[in-house]
Write a structure and sequence with these properties.
Layout (H helix, E strand, L loop, with lengths): L3 H9 L1 H5 L8 H18 L3 H11 L7 H8 L11 H4 L6 H10 L3 H7 L4 H10 L3 H9 L10 H18 L11 H12 L3 H4 L5 E6 L6 H13 L4 E8 L2 H14 L4 H4 L1 E3 L15 E4 L11 H8 L18 H9 L10 E7 L1 H4 L6 H11 L3 E6 L12 E7 L9 E6 L5 E7 L2 E4 L2 H13 L6 E5 L4 E8 L4 E3 L3 H5 L5 H8 L6 H15 L9 H14 L6 H10 L1 E3 L21 E6 L4 H8 L8 E2 L13 E4 L3 H4 L9 H23 L1
Parallel strand pairs: 1-2, 1-4, 2-3, 4-5, 6-8
Antiparallel strand pairs: 5-7, 6-7, 8-11, 9-10, 12-15, 12-16, 12-17, 13-14
Helix pairs in contact: 1-11, 3-11, 3-15, 4-5, 7-9, 11-15, 12-14, 12-21
Length: 669
Amino acid sequence: MQNFSEKVNFIWSIADLIRGHFKRAEYREVILPFTVLRRIDSVLASTRQDVLDTLAEIGDSVDNPYDLLCQKSGFTFYNKSLYDFESLLGDAPQLADNLRNYIAGFSDNMREVIERFDFDNTIKKLDEKNLLYLVIERFKNIELHPCSVSNAEMGLIFEELIRKFNEASNENPGEHFTPREVIRLMAELLMARDAAELKRPGKIVHVYDPCCGTGGMLTVAKNHINALNRDSEVRLFGQELNDEAFAVAKSDLYMLSRDGKDAENIAFGSTLSDDRHRNQKFDYMLANPPYGTEWKNEKTAVMAEAERGYSGRFGAGTPRISDGQLLFLQHMISKMRSDEDGSRIAIVMNGSPLFTGDAGSGESEIRRWILENDWLDVIISLTTNLFYNTGIPTFIWVLSNKKPQNRRDKVQLIDATSFWQPMRRGLGDKRREISKEQIAEIIQLYREQPNNAHSKIFDRRDFGYRKVTVERPLQVNFQATEERIARLDRERAFRNLIKNAKRDPRHAVEEQQLIKSILNAMPNNIFKNRDNFLRILTRTAEKQEYKLKEPIRKAILSALSERDETAALCRDKKGKPEPDSNLRDYEYVPLRDDVEEYFKREVSPHLPDAWINTGKRDPKDDEIGKVGYRINFNRFFYQYEQPRPLAEINADIRQLEADILATLREVMG
């Protein structure tokens, strides 16, 4: 087995052994932990005897032999069991017990990782179905030592297996990982301007992924930095909620780093509700948070964190409960270093965080916070069908609090939707990939910042606007007809006369009947002036010795009125026109424009009676209109295409009609 596909297919063939005994959704419970265990077994094979010899030599003379045994194993973990994959098969009757003994022989740190797979239950099932021997025998025949399978390739194998598991069980096949070429693009974008700094002797770099999955982003970033400077010390940090992905990431990092520190820096749990790297800062951060995933389970913790304001992680606001992508981005921003070196972030998200939410919403306020702090550097629009789990468009955001002078107060948008090539064989929804040459083209666009068909440079305020409330006057007529009086039954204040009756509702019913009798006694003509109508209404009520209370008066005006552009304007006590809430509208005024000038230019010529509601102001700057930010990516790169001439379209239609008729004649004989 020389290539990646052969290894994946060999491991996946275990499904043939267990098919019929395990449900399709349960394949992962067998294949994934045995793959991890076989790789660890391969890694420890060369030093296994040294560990056993040392154990025999020291006996019980050393209370805590961990450091000594790790020194012998060459890693920060070891196995002191007498068994390995080869010897386990030599005692078939006791295979299940011996396998448990083998797992129990691992040092505590690695055993805790393996236990994330709930492996003991899997062993029991396989043993009961007489499949345990066959599975171990099959895994014994594949070599997974890092000398044969690099950590990068092993990461791809794990991710392809997870994709197959989820595809088999109709679950989300791309939940835990990102295509490697996308990660490479993210890594190069992060470090495109830092090559000289990263090559500095003795450079120490901290890289973080808050939803690290199987660790692919972290290892690719580390490899990229080491390619620039092999002597640099790269420390990896991450957190993952999924048990299996966490176990895969942590176990492989134990084998990747001799001191085991990277593995120890991978924490388990929900990043949103339980930050396991609290108060830590990082140089580079990468993430692919889940798209459109609810954060309802974390709501209590997230809202408590948000109430802390900017001293917490979610001070800018919280997005809608159905999508937590912008929570992950805020969390990463909270991890940026505040010193002169600063930090850089690359996060891949779908289109929702670009524009979802109106002015004043949580999403808009988060975008406002990011842009007004000048952290957003570039957004790259990627092609569709690039990810394993979705065919929708995706976007890479790059943020920095150490932007160079020529990029300050600027945001670059790059349209890379045409930068792709077809895959020879699709994987799930992934049918396209980005080549190394295309990655280089995107990086060149980022470095050179041209204004062309693929790249545009904007002032950060170009994405801002003020949502201004536009009012129009209330113009209605009034008439006490049978139809309009019947509408009174739908008015809340009128219905509440009975609802609020304390004991006997009969008096309330009598009051309702009295009100209707007053209205029936009104003149039947149409009143186009509200004040005139109110005078007649009050006079008629007084004749029946009934005093109209304000809620009932408003209910009558609402029920008996209809919009009428020929009616007189309704005015308040100060003589100013009252607004008609049904005609209320909103204008989205670019942040760079003067609101009054914009209104005169864009609104007044079409609606001369309209005016701006100056009472609706932004709470942060007390100016007219709420401030909002959105990034309508497609609008900036839209290119108008001239429609085909009508004569040409008609000719095509006539030709199609002729072809259909000819086909029908052949069918009819």
